[in-house]
Amino acid sequence: MTIVNLSDISIELFVAVMFFLLIIAPLVSLGVLRLFQGRKKAGLSLIGGGVIGYFVFQLIAGMFS
């Protein structure tokens, strides 16, 4: 078993990964689930929310870089 060194990870990368894992990925996965359940409007809304969240994050990240 090896020990992973996390000291080289920047705070920006950490925030980006957390944003993706906590907001964008669940919205998209719930959207796909709703599409399989036959609830097209709810599914597309959730997927659209995930895509919009991604673009908003890109805009905000672009301001700081």
Short description:
This protein has two helices and no strands. With 65 residues, it is mainly α.
Would you kindly provide a written description of the structure presented here, covering whatever features stand out?
By secondary structure, the protein is an all-alpha fold. Helix content is 78%, strand content 0%. It has helices spanning 11-36, 40-64. The longest helix has 26 residues, at 11-36. The radius of gyration is 16 Å and the shape is flat. The mean pLDDT is 86.
Main features:
transmembrane; 78% helix; mainly alpha
Order of helices and strands: HH
- End-to-end gap: 36 Å
Radius of gyration: 16 Å
Helix content: over 70%
Query: Per DSSP, what share of the residues sits in E-state strands of 2 or more residues?
Result: under 5%
- Uncertain segments are none
Largest sheet: none
Continuous helix count:
2
Query: How many strands?
Result: 0
What is the oligomer described by this structure?
A: single chain
Rounded average pLDDT: 86
Approximate shape? flat
What class do helices, strands and sheet pairing give? mainly alpha
